[in-house]
Design a protein that fits this description.
Layout lengths: L17 H14 L12 H8 L3 H13 L3 E3 L5 E3 L20 H4 L21 E2 L12 H11 L5 H5 L8 H11 L12 E4 L1 H13 L5 E6 L3 H10 L2 E6 L16 E4 L13 H14 L2 E5 L24 E6 L11 E4 L2 H15 L4 H12 L2 H26 L3 E5 L6 E5 L6 H9 L3 E2 L1 E2 L13 E5 L5 H19 L1
Helix pairs in contact: 1-3, 2-3, 5-12, 7-12, 8-9, 8-11, 13-15
Length: 487
């Protein structure tokens, strides 16, 4: 890699010779980490022309840097940052020249919330029981690549390059309206659908449009950590509703709630499914008490044991349910494509907010997904995922029973995870830390719960990212570690 000549410029206020200034520029770039070992510097002729100095001045500066082992020369190939050049110093936070009092300057704080820890190098671990990560052995890379190439063609040039302002890809919208939503019993017009940057962005848009500091949101406890963060940032009043074996109990929703956030088909993280009778009761309460419902239907495609229950939105006759869907779980999490479905007045406001923040999701990604879906590759991928997860589920069931681990919740129609209960006396955060040293990754339950329940004794085991062959030995290690901690 070559260092651009445009990164060099002379300082008129520099006290010293031009040669010294060039030496300082190069040495400073190396010591700051901007120039790295092996990178090629501009030729002495090119740098001299750029700076407006004589070539001999640059050559002398380079030679001095070579003498100090900052640079090396490869004959006619030019000058390079030496492999033996001094390494950039490890600067402490106090060495920064930043004099701003950020504790006072920051008006709204968005950091500090407890989230699920997922190492970026999770694939290096032998037993990754992590939720929501893509298994490269199952993903259809070849057809995705072909669709991406097709989306780059001249025919799709406008969808790729134009600023669509507030519009979405018409082909993607058509597929969602005609294929995806009807499978959940939902009928919607194009003006009732909005493409989002994943389900998290959909939840954020819904919260921003529906909630204020004077309004109240109710959500499940435990729940998806990202939702709790979104509601906290909205500064609305929050009510936590403890879930049971059938999900969120409608009778626990207090009067005065404006919006209820729920995961009825596959409660996050307990995996419980809300029965039809309870869904109808929730809708009755919504109509009676005049509140809206945001339904996060994040894993309905993974139904390999039996067909999933109809979406709550499909039972809604009053337009009170706002539906959140995503392709990230069935395709890959880095795709970041989801969608909101709701009444046209709500979608109009959500679209205006999205436009103000990010305009629209990338056109090329939308069109690639539209091709992948419409050409049948998506359905084939989902079938392959269901078959693989079904096989892994059988292995998980056998391994968990064999080693006596307690399952607190498992999806009735399938899914890709178990909600586990650790024995009394086990700190699941410590358990996760100890298992990580043995190349086992699990998800402690604390991140899913309110702050006053951080001693939560649950943890989540997912089997979407681990091969069937690794499940039994991985579960054995978890059981052995629990026994060791109880001694």
């Amino acid at each position: 890699m070559s260092i651009a000549v445009e990164t060099f410029f002379l300082d008129p206020a520099f006290e010293g010779t031009l040669q010294q200034q060039i030496q300082q520029m190069v040495a400073g770039g190396i010591l700051s980490g901007r120039f790295r070992p092996g990178e090629k510097l501009p030729s002495s002729r090119k740098l001299a022309q750029h700076l407006g100095v004589s070539r001999i001045t640059v050559t002398l500066a380079y030679n001095e840097l070579m003498a100090d082992d900052y640079l090396s020369s490869a004959g006619r190939s030019g000058y390079f940052v030496s492999e033996n050049a001094p390494e950039p110093p490890q600067l402490s936070p106090r060495s920064s020249l930043d004099t701003v009092d950020w504790a006072r300057a920051i008006g709204n704080r968005f950091s500090g919330g407890l989230q699920i820890e997922k190492p970026l190098d999770w694939r290096k671990y032998k037993y990754p029981f992590l939720y929501g990560q893509v298994d490269p052995a199952l993903f259809d890379r070849q057809n995705w690549r072909l669709c991406a190439v097709r989306a780059l063609g001249q025919r799709d040039f406008d969808s790729l390059t134009a600023d669509q302002v507030d519009r979405d890809d018409p082909q993607l919208l058509e597929f969602i309206a005609r294929n995806t939503l009807p499978r959940r019993g939902i009928l919607a017009n194009p003006d009732e659908i909005l493409i989002t940057v994943g389900a998290q962005n959909a939840l954020w848009l819904a919260a921003q449009v529906l909630l204020t500091q004077r309004r109240t949101a109710a959500h499940e406890d435990p729940c998806y950590p990202g939702l709790r963060t979104i509601l906290h940032q909205s500064r609305c009043h929050r009510v936590e509703i403890p879930v049971d074996g059938d999900g969120l109990p409608p009778d626990l929703i207090p009067k005065g709630v404006d919006v209820v956030f729920t995961t009825p088909s596959h409660q996050c993280p307990t995996a419980s499914t809300m029965p039809i009778t309870r869904r109808k009761e929730l809708l009755r309460r919504a109509s009676e008490d005049d509140f809206l419902i945001v339904e996060d239907d994040y894993e309905f495609e993974m139904s390999f044991l039996k067909p999933p229950s109809p979406a709550l939105k499909s039972l809604d006759e009053d337009g009170r349910v706002i539906y959140v869907g995503s392709f990230s779980k069935s395709l890959f999490p880095g795709l970041r494509l989801g969608y909101l479905v709701g009444s046209a007045p709500f979608i109009r406001e959500a679209r205006a907010l999205r436009t103000a923040v990010l305009r629209h999701p990338p056109g090329h990604m939308q069109r690639t997904a539209a091709y992948f879906l419409s050409l049948g590759h998506y359905d084939a991928l989902v079938r392959r995922l269901r078959n693989a997860l079904h096989d892994r589920r059988r292995v998980m069931d056998h391994a968990l029973a064999e080693h006596g681990l307690t399952v607190a919740g498992a999806g009735a129609f399938g899914g890709s995870s178990y909600w586990m209960r650790a024995p009394d006396g086990i700190d699941t955060h410590e358990l996760a830390s100890r298992l990580r040293e043995k190349s086992v990754l699990i998800e402690p339950g604390a991140a899913f719960c309110e702050s006053n329940q951080r001693e939560y004794k649950h943890y989540r085991l997912a089997y979407s990212s681990i091969s069937a062959a690794q499940i039994s030995p991985g579960v054995a290690l978890i059981a052995a570690e629990i026994k060791d901690m109880l001694r």
